[in-house]
């Protein structure tokens, strides 16, 4: 039997600022949660709110308390009161490889391997007519506890990442066989998202934010609103100290083009943004790869501290150094998806000694083991003997433990609810919000913040990023101004003659399609952010819809500037009609086409996998839009089987709108008297002759046509160009609506394209 006491500063690790104490409960609340035996999960999570309210209630720091387990004889056994056990058994995961890639499919005599997954000496265990199955994980079992680091080791390609993905629920339902359970209860996906974090192998960070800002934004996303600003700040500062990032706090992350923090520091920032909400389960894929041994050691040291604060840390390591080995509590060695060793680092020598390959004293234990496994993989029998030996060794260890524990083996068999409850009272699980819905499953808080807060935070981050890279906007503005300048000088002060009308049409067609082309720069924006977005939304940092809205909000100011610049440069220089109101509409329609084009390109960036492919598609589609806009061929002359594309053409609407803006003055004249002969073979005859011709035409037609008679007004030109079906304001509205439509499609692409799971 064990009793629970509260001790001062009893953690063996000397944190400068133990951060989770920020969430410390008063003793009354702790008693409250301890006595409630049969709480539902929803009720438990309500306690999170109570904790948070208390935590944010008074500004004074509560003294540092830790709950400890003390056994009857007074010996401190473990520095943790909340035993979480993540157990996984018989995990098997296989993928189908297309027949083309399969060499073994050529040999039909291997067909007897089908179904022999457990004993196959190689991962290729089955084959069908057109697909071969490759087993990436083969019957893997194990256990990880809070306070400990479990490391997955193995050569490259042995299945480490796959195993971590399997444990982190990142493999699509139904594909993974076997069970993963926390304290004996199967993990619901929603709950897992709240209590866990996954640190990817690559550092996906915004290069222009400082370390402190990066962590602050993470805190704003993942910590609940009920937590005061000062508490969030304190959490960030504590985390900076805990991660050893104090010296780099004000440095930007940096990238290829900008000097920034070092690789080790970047790694720790990556870890920091995922542990900001103090997850119970922390998964990391090769957190030390690519780091020098000191940085790698510091990273694992940080992980050890996180584990000892009551988390389960599961990570994969490629090749741990001797010092890192000392920080690991459990290890699983994989070879081609099979377990070849599982146990503590200290048991490793005896394991291999009994297997008949004792580890020489001078060798690094893990290096020896990995080398041996590689040798076995290359040998004819494969690692089968080692896998079998491990199995018997495991059952032997189990037997020993059972006789040792003598019936009280399930001593710390806390249920998941109890464990989470106890964890909450210790200040864990701070990402939980206070959702007091009646339905228990919907009470699991999905997002820490409401919609509008998320939009605000996302927009703030986006603006900070653009402010740090003013050259990007400068280049866009420069491009638009150069185009405007060239157009302004090319089409300088067009007159109202028939030639001038032709040139105006050309100017409008070109200007309206140029606005679309200049929006292609929106393409890399999301492509760059996509993986950051996926990482953040995979664990519910914010809603996808918030991202959508903030993406549009942050794009708009730049578009307003660009359209204003373009409209101002060209409107008077070309000599367009309509005065102030004409300019206002001209500006609005350019803004609308920028908006529609930007949305269209943004949507493309959500579906294309690569920038270059994106540009190719944008350029091609915009060219078709221009072709079908009605400038080259009028609407009434477009073949019936292509007319649908005319209505899809984004360029049609702004083009028709500016034409109407220009030519809708019913009294303005564009072809007057002898101008009727311009652009005809008679254009070159002398003026007196033209007047004579006019006179004889008048006589024939029976109407008087003098040199001042207007023959073509603006509305005639609109008629001739087939611009009759929509008013200019409707064209504007439709252009704006296209923008919203493509934003909606972009949203769908976000929903579909960011599942972040293996199939
Ligand atoms: N979708 C897939 N299709 C086929 N093979 C895959 C797929 N995903 C991973 N693999 C293979 O599975 C093995 C294990 O991959 P992984 O877990 O990434 O290894 P590790 O992280 O240990 O380097 C590798 O041989 C890899 O090529
Ligand atoms: Mg890997």
UniProtKB/TrEMBL annotation:
GO cellular component: membrane
Keyword ATP-binding attributed: yes
UniProt keyword list: ATP-binding, Membrane, Nucleotide-binding, Transmembrane, Transmembrane helix, Transport
Domain of life: Eukaryota
Membrane topology: Multi-pass membrane protein
Segments forming domain ABC transporter: 120-361
Gene3D superfamilies in UniProt: P-loop containing nucleotide triphosphate hydrolases
Chain ranges passing through the membrane: 473-494, 506-527, 548-574, 580-601, 613-633, 732-753
Main subcellular location of this protein, as a coarse class: membrane
Record localization: Membrane
Transport found in the keyword field: yes
GO MF annotations in UniProt: ABC-type transporter activity; ATP binding; ATP hydrolysis activity
Name the UniProt record assigns to this protein: ABC transporter domain-containing protein
């Amino acid at each position: 039997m064990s009793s629970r006491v509260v001790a001062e500063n009893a953690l063996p690790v000397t944190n400068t600022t133990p951060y989770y104490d920020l969430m410390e409960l008063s003793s009354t609340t702790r008693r409250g949660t301890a006595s409630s035996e049969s709480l539902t999960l929803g009720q438990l999570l309500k306690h999170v709110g109570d904790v948070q309210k208390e935590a944010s209630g008074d500004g004074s720091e509560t003294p540092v308390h830790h709950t400890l387990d003390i056994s009857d004889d007074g010996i401190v056994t473990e520095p943790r009161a909340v035993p979480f056990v993540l157990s996984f058994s018989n995990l098997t995961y296989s993928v189908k490889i297309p027949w083309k890639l399969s060499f073994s499919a050529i040999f039909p005599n291997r067909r007897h391997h089908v179904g022999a997954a457990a004993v196959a000496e190689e991962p290729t265990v089955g084959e069908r007519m057109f697909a071969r199955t490759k087993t990436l994980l083969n019957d893997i079992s194990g256990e990880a506890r809070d306070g400990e680091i479990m490391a997955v080791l193995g050569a490259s390609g042995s299945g480490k990442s796959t195993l971590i993905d399997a444990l982190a629920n990142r493999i699509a339902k139904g594909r993974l066989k076997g069970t993963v359970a926390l304290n004996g209860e199967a993990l619901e996906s929603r709950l897992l998202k709240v209590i866990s974090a996954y640190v990817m192998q690559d550092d996906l960070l915004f290069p222009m934010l400082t370390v402190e800002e990066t962590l602050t934004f993470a805190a704003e996303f993942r910590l609940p609103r009920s937590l005061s600003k000062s508490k969030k700040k304190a959490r960030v500062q504590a985390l900076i100290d805990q991660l050893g990032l104090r010296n780099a706090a004000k440095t930007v992350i940096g990238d290829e083009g900008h000097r920034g923090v070092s690789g080790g520091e970047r790694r720790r920032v990556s870890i920091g943004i995922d542990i900001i909400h103090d997850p119970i389960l922390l998964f990391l894929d090769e957190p030390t790869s690519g780091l020098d041994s000191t940085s790698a050691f510091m990273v694992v040291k940080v992980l050890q501290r996180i584990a000892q604060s009551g988390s389960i840390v599961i990570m994969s390591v490629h090749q741990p150094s001797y010092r890192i080995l000392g920080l690991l509590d459990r290890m699983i060695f994989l070879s081609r998806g099979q377990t070849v060793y599982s146990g503590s680092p200290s048991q490793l020598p005896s394991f291999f000694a009994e297997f008949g390959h004792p580890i020489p004293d001078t060798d690094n234990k893990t290096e020896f083991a990995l080398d041996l496994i590689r040798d076995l993989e290359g040998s004819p029998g494969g690692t089968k003997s080692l896998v079998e030996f491990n199995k018997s060794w495991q059952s032997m260890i189990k037997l020993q433990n059972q006789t040792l524990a003598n019936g009280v083996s399930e001593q710390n068999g806390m249920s998941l609810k109890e464990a989470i409850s106890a964890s909450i009272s210790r200040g864990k699980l701070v990402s939980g919000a206070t959702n007091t819905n009646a339905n228990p499953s919907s009470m699991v808080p999905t997002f820490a913040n409401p919609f509008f807060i998320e939009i605000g935070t996302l927009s703030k981050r986006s603006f900070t990023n653009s402010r740090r890279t003013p050259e990007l906007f400068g280049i866009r503005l420069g491009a638009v101004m150069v185009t405007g300048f060239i157009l302004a000088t090319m089409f300088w002060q067009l007159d109202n003659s028939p030639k001038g009308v032709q040139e105006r049409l050309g100017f409008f067609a070109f200007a309206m399609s140029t606005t679309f082309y200049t929006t292609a720069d929106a393409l890399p924006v999301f492509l760059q952010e996509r993986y950051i977005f996926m990482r953040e939304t995979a664990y519910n940092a914010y809603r996808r819809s918030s991202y959508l809205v903030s993406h549009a909000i942050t794009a708009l100011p730049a578009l307003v500037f660009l359209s204003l610049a373009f409209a101002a440069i060209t409107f008077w220089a070309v000599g367009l009609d309509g005065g102030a109101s004409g300019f206002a509409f001209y500006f609005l329609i350019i803004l609308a086409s920028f908006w529609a084009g930007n949305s269209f390109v943004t949507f493309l960036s959500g579906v294309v996998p690569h920038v270059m492919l994106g540009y190719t598609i944008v350029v091609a589609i915009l060219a078709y839009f221009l072709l079908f806009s009605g400038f080259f061929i009028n609407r009434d002359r477009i073949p019936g089987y292509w007319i649908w594309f005319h209505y899809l053409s984004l360029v049609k609407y702004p083009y028709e709108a500016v034409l109407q803006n220009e030519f809708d003055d019913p009294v303005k004249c564009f072809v007057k008297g002898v101008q009727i002969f311009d652009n005809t073979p008679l254009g070159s005859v002398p003026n007196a002759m033209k007047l004579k011709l006019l006179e004889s035409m008048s006589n024939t037609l029976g109407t008087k046509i003098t040199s001042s008679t207007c023959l073509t007004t603006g509305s005639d030109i609109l008629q001739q160009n087939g611009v009759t079906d929509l008013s200019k304001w409707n064209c504007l509205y439709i252009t704006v609506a296209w923008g919203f439509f493509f934003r909606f499609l972009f949203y769908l692409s976000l929903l579909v394209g960011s599942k972040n799971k293996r199939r």
